[in-house]
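so the lab meeting is tmrw and i was supposed to have these ready like two days ago... anyway. pasting both below. for each one the top line is the aa sequence and the line under it is the structure tokens. i havent really looked at them closely yet so no promises
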Amino acid sequence: MLAIRLRRMGNRNSPFYRVVVSDSRRVPRSSAIEELGHYHPSGTLKGVDIDLERLNYWVDRGAKPSPTVLRLVKQQAKGGLAQTEAVETPAAEAVTAEEPTAEAQAAAAETEADSSTEAETGESEAVETETETETEAEGS
């Protein structure tokens, strides 16, 4: 007899599942006849993506879906779980910000001003630091 069930994949503490058609007498981790979709319960790709045409094909051939697969199919059909898509996190928003903050703009302007001053005078801050150190040593 065929079963439509979930196969756990992924790392420890961050699972995702594949919806597979396999022989019900075998272990879920054994080889599958066909992969029908994915279910990501958490993380950046949260959602479910199941090929309903292929699911119906296998149900017509006698495959029995597990209760969890039936629940996921119902939720996908009514839109409870969105199709798999990236979920934006605050860290991702900070990285992909289009406009730099005022502080970043000020720091960039200061860096440009320092580099243009060094180019005009031909001196670097290292030379100035050495002369200050020598002056302090002579004064002591």
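ok protien two:
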Amino acid sequence: LRAGKSWTGWAWAVARGRDFTAEAPGTQWLGGRAKPRRWATIRRGRCWRRLRAILSMLLYHGLRREELCRLRVADIEARRGVAHLRVFGKGAKVRYVPLHPATGRLVHEYLEAAGRNAGGGGEDTGGALFRPVVNNATPEGLARGLDPGSVHREIVARYCREAGIAASGIGPHALRATAATNALDHGADIARVQAWLGHADISTTKMYDRRGERPEESPTFRVEY
């Protein structure tokens, strides 16, 4: 992800549920260009809880945007005592991804605020986990998930603009690459990351490994005389 620390810091702050609206100007979250007034506007928005849950889902689980949009409330289930996501990937393949506790908390807050219930056996468990804000009270609205294109336009790109971040190429797929790189950075085995991302071929997973692109890792800085 080439947008730098401005974007990644902001996204991780939101995904972790940090209330960054209280940060003073010049903080790390916008690379020294914090805009707390704009952030306060975002923070008060009715979509705030959904935004945090979606960004956290993307950043902690490396989902494709289509996979995110296919999720149902009932797709959060316990396996061996651990909450998992049942993810429907490419080629109708199903994989089970452990739900990160930070994401689980944000999803619970989002569903609770929306008057919905995750895993509680209610009538909404078959409905889409993330659905449009409007026209969602009918049976058809309950079943309809977000449009994959709107995840880019109305969530990732929109809130970049709202936060005053000018970075080209940022989209849900960039967050997927960020998640993969972060997992590899912290010692995850690349074969496990392959299964986690739902790749059929490990060569595809290697394309997501951006560690070699870091200038500070160049052999230039290993030369000593």
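from a quick look at the 2nd one: DSSP finds ten helices and three strands in the chain. Residues 1-5, 19-37 have pLDDT under 50 and may be disordered. will dig more after coffe
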